[in-house]
Amino acid sequence: MSAGSADHAALVLGIETSCDETAAAVVTREGRVLSSVVSSQVPIHARYGGVVPELASRNHLVQAPPVIAQAMAEAGIGLDALGAVAVTAGPGLAGCLLIGMQVGKSMAYARGVPLVPVDHIQAHVWAPFLSDARDAGAATRGLAYPYIALAVSGGHTSLLKVDGPGVSTTLGATMDDAAGECFDKIAKLMGLPYPGGAHIDRLAKIGDATRFDLPRPLAHKGLDFSFSGLKTAARLAWAAASAGLDEGPALDAVRADLAASAQAAIVDVLVDKAFLACRETGIARLVAAGGVACNEGLRARLADKAPRRKIAVHVAPARYCSDNAAMVGGLGAALWQGGAGLTGRELTRAGIYVTSRRAVYAAVGGAAKAGARARGEAR
Hints:
It is built from twelve helices and ten strands. By secondary structure, the chain is α/β, with parallel strands linked by helices.
């Protein structure tokens, strides 16, 4: 879509800096993505095997201006075309969130447009509603509220009942580690590069998933998750199987088999609990969202089991599963249409939160009404 064909008064700038991606996007009120730019920090953090919060926040400070400028340029608009600014308020890393929030507040205040704080997890589970020139909107065909959402990434793993944009009830969540973190830590112990999830997914295709009998934590115990024990089991399996082996085909085979076994264990738990949530609520619509939703093994298992369970599964394209600002701008646009948005003194008081919690924002049209619409994940 060209900038000339878009209603500029209906455009929203989305800003995302919750972890190690600096992202900006321009989205219409209807959730159509005009531009989406993501600056990755993987090269910065790879040497440490994980995200270093201070380095991440400093890099956001450097990258935010050019990333936003690129998003505006790719959308073919200027600042005067924006109707609102949406920014991730949490959860995430404190220093990282502060950079995005301050940039968003400054831009919204300077332009005299509303600021819409957005919950990161709520944005992930809204992402299938995005559309673009590459037909991302195909993910939402047949999707309607309410639906069950499996939100799974490096920092979050939860099951939500979603009743509207930004309105959800938490049905279950991880009691310790996130699924994505489990992928990355198992990859790290095997000497695979950071981030390890993609490498686990690649090796799982050639490995023997039956070689290592890894646990399925809390497999038949409600809708909460636990992955710390699985990490320990994988570490012990790796230590035993790799003992005395030098780099070579034999050790490569151990890596592939452990990758396949670990991925099978994680995917089994995620899929079984997601379908259990659908069954217990009587809702036959399931959204898989977050960075781990890029995992091909997870996507394949959902696609294989869904028809037998008579559940419609919706997954956004991979570019909108990993952290991005299009999902922030899209959910922000939906909330803005519902009356959310901070201006004046309320805008200057907007803050961040680092852990998942109920977030209520005063908004244009009445604090109580907008708060009910903008109420986020309750944990």
